[in-house]
Design brief:
Elements: H1 2-6, H2 29-40, H3 43-46, H4 51-65
């Protein structure tokens, strides 16, 4: 599964991304893009105790950066 390829067990909430993923590489670009978006979120958003709190903090974060 993709999470096995990109998850770095040495970090708490971060995913590692290959430097180059492009046509013909054999990888779908979606997991790489998702990992980069996740990594760009502040710890306050990613280290939440529940989905409801995550959604609330994500919404607040996105509104603050726009």
């Amino acid at each position: 599964m993709y999470s096995d390829l990109f998850h770095n067990p040495n970090t708490k909430h971060r995913f590692s991304c290959p430097d180059f993923i492009g046509p013909g590489s054999g990888f779908d670009d979606t997991p790489v893009a998702a990992a980069r978006v996740w990594n760009s979120l502040p710890d306050l958003v990613t280290s939440t105790p529940s989905v409801a709190v995550f959604r609330s903090r994500l919404k607040t974060h996105l509104l603050n950066i726009s």
